[in-house]
Amino acid sequence: MVLFFDNGNAFATGATRYQYRPATENESTNRIFLQVDVQATVFVPDREELWGNFPYFIGLGGFLERIRFAFDPASDTFYFGSLT
Known about the structure:
Layout: E1 14-22, E2 30-34, E3 67-72, E4 77-82
Antiparallel strand pairs: 1-2, 1-4, 3-4
């Protein structure tokens, strides 16, 4: 399924299901987990750098601010597409 603007232009060109759950067994705060394949340049710290117990993620800064995206909580679907 693809989302469209009122004028017929595509808002999103891809969609994937997501999970809404805690990141670890010891947490109670839910987070959104999804899997998408993108071609991008991202920062991944060296193994010896201590970043705590955090999982690697690509968040709002540097990634999501550069794409068009939407969530549909009724179907647990994440829609995404190019800004251009």
